[in-house]
Write a structure and sequence with these properties.
The chain is of the alpha+beta class. It is 19% helix and 31% strand. The protein contains five helices and 17 strands. Strands 6, 7, 8, 9 and 10 form a five-stranded mixed beta sheet that branches.
Length: 315
């Protein structure tokens, strides 16, 4: 299926069907469009820039449409409009136009105007990451590609950026990295006896314009590479780096993660210090402070006091 947007109007698409020796051309319109089987409360996460932290942050928006094409256009409208929260600002530029949008099964291609290249490198990265993150939050979109006047965007190594999925993005609320440099990080995983943590050093590709803390969280969620260690977290665990201020690194734990910790589904002490020790191994981090949905954790039922900041500790 292909969707074309031009000033919010769907144009008629021509396609040729060859029957025997004759070539016939038909006009096709999107009159019968498959509806999405989701919950009644359909929403999209639109990613805006947090003015204070400079990072992407989602704002949930209600969708009124039921057809895929209409949902995509409604999502584009949200990207072009300012957010509701005062601490957020849109990352789309007034000068950049969304030319066309093509939907092919679960993949979408967004074509934009040449003004994209007038942006600074960091703003371009923020723009593309916002588009990638926003559209992949829709349950029927798996991959997103951005083109400029029909041409592929190239990375710094000359290769095409191509289609991006939500798994190419560091965390749920951070922007997509373009590997440029190599950094050595020290990660702490639990040993096979499930009684202590052991360090694993690895060299990873990073974008120097993005916080290294993002990559540490990502690597922890990917799990250990050694056979002597085991993973404490699943790859879909909601653990997000927020910011580091005066040596204190703020990490957001999702409600599901807090519940697993409090119920003992995951070893609480090993899990917390796996995160703390890995982040405190960075020169920029002295302590780690945990939040939940951006707020202080006060009603946690586990054994550790998650309202306090943590320092590295041998476990």
């Amino acid at each position: 299926m292909k969707l074309i947007k031009d000033k919010m109007t769907f144009f008629v698409v021509l396609f040729a069907v060859i029957v025997t020796s004759f070539s016939m051309v038909f006009l096709v319109t999107h009159r019968n469009v498959e509806k999405i089987n989701t919950t009644d409360s359909r929403t999209v996460k639109v990613y805006y820039k947090n003015i204070a932290t400079g990072l992407l942050e989602p704002e949930e928006k209600k969708l009124n449409s039921t057809k895929k094409e209409d949902i995509i256009l409604e999502t584009l409208d949200y990207l072009e409009k300012p957010p509701t929260k005062e601490q957020l600002t849109k990352v789309t530029s007034e000068n950049i136009e969304f030319n066309n949008v093509y939907l092919d099964k679960s993949n979408i291609t967004v074509d934009i105007s040449n003004e994209f290249y007038d942006l600074k490198d960091g703003d371009r990265l923020m723009f593309t990451s916002s588009v990638f993150s926003t559209f992949t939050s829709l349950d029927f979109i798996e991959k997103v590609k951005i083109t400029v006047e029909g041409k592929e965007i190239l990375k710094s190594n000359g290769k095409e950026l191509g289609f991006m999925s939500k798994y190419n993005i560091v965390t749920d609320n951070q922007i997509m990295p373009e590997p440029l440099n190599y950094e050595k990080v020290k990660l702490y995983f639990v040993d096979t006896s499930m009684k202590k943590l052991e360090a694993e050093e690895r060299i990873i590709e990073v974008n120097p314009n993005q916080p290294i803390e993002n990559y540490v969280i990502q690597q922890l969620l990917e799990g250990p590479q050694r056979s002597t260690s085991v993973a404490l977290f699943s790859s879909d665990s909601k653990i997000s780096f927020l910011r580091t201020v005066d040596g204190v690194c703020y990490v957001d734990l999702g409600k599901d993660m807090l519940q697993k910790l409090s119920l003992g589904t995951i070893n609480e002490t090993l899990a917390i210090y796996s995160i703390v020790n890995s982040l405190c191994a960075l020169e920029s981090v002295d302590k780690v402070k945990f939040l939940s949905d951006g707020k202080k954790i006060e009603d946690y039922k586990g054994t550790l006091d998650l309202s306090n900041a943590f320092v590295s500790k041998t476990i």
